[in-house]
Amino acid sequence: xxxxxxxxxxxxxxxxxxxxxxxxxxxxxxxxxxxxxxxxxxxxxxxxxxxxxxxxxxxxxxxxxxxxxxxxxxxxxxxxxxxxxxxxxxxxxxxxxxxxxxxxxxxxxxxxxxxxxxxxxxxxxxxxxxxxxxxxxxxxxxxxxxxxxxxxxxxxxxxxxxxxxxxxxxxxxxxxxxxxxxxxxxxxxxxxxxxxxxxxxxxxxxxxxxxxxxxxxxxxxxxxxxxxxxxxxxxxxxxxxxxxxxxxxxxxxxxxxxxxxxxxxxxxxxxxxxxxxxxxxxxxxxxxxxxxxxxxxxxxxxxxxxxxxxxxxxxxxxxxxxxxxxxxxxxxxxxxxxxxxxxxxxxxxxxxxxxxxxxxxxxxxx
Length: 366
Hints:
Elements lengths: L1 H18 L2 E6 L2 E4 L20 E6 L6 E9 L2 E13 L10 E4 H4 L8 E3 L7 H7 L4 H6 L5 E11 L6 E9 L5 E5 L2 E2 L6 E2 L7 E4 L9 E7 L10 H4 L1 E7 L15 E9 L18 E3 L3 E5 L3 H17 L2 H8 L7 E4 L2 E4 H11 L11
Parallel strand pairs: 2-9, 12-18
Antiparallel strand pairs: 1-3, 3-6, 4-5, 4-8, 5-7, 8-9, 10-13, 11-18, 14-15, 14-16, 16-17, 16-18, 19-20
Helix pairs in contact: 6-8
């Protein structure tokens, strides 16, 4: 009885070993974009598809032809159903052979590929399928997917095996439509309202996603003799700020009395040609931009006195790092950070005064 049990156990182990010989893996496994065209996965014209992912298939067992099945779904509803797109490798794949590497162009295709032939008829028209799906009918007409998840599911096995190995590639779509500026100012082309207080606070609204993490604020300065227009902002204006910022930004900036300022908020967008595999800043590429707002800064007396007092307090510190920076032309913006806490306005002046006569290390923030 023990001998029979041992034989059964060995057979079971062999079965597990055979199943584990085939390796199937997508790279990358996921992608996040702000726009996805409905024809990005057109099996009728696979070479027009952007290169999005690769699938590697290797077999560490006995040489055999490989069966491959492809399915495509949108939010769990199949566009290409399991069993509709079947392929079989042209050659056997075994332990000593190089892995097969396929792109999405090879898999979402009606004609097979370099390594695989069709296994039966494949007749798939993505546009017709989307038009028949209630939740994607509008997307087919508009040409872009709404928010959701597109998934490519792949199954593969040696022809003589029973068990399949699978892998999954997903594209998460989060569309961004607009950035709405709130204050300060009015849309360019209207009379620029006056702003008197420092620091000025900038507010805007934007739809957030889980991967569009950074927003950028740009501010350009114009002298009274050369007001901004929609066509000259970036050519005639002097850029005074272009950094990551979020609504409510209120740092002290070196605004000049009587000058006009134009500001805009932008966010990098990600599509299948520039996916957010990591968050990259690309202000000249595919970005979502707000319109421009303008305002005129007219310094009030209290703010001017506060800035003068801030400068005077810095002079009293007699700190070499600060003095050298100012001699090089750096302009203090009125913000002080001590032990992780940020001070602005009169609080910043009081914090500086408390440092007089003490020994401390100063660091300039970029």
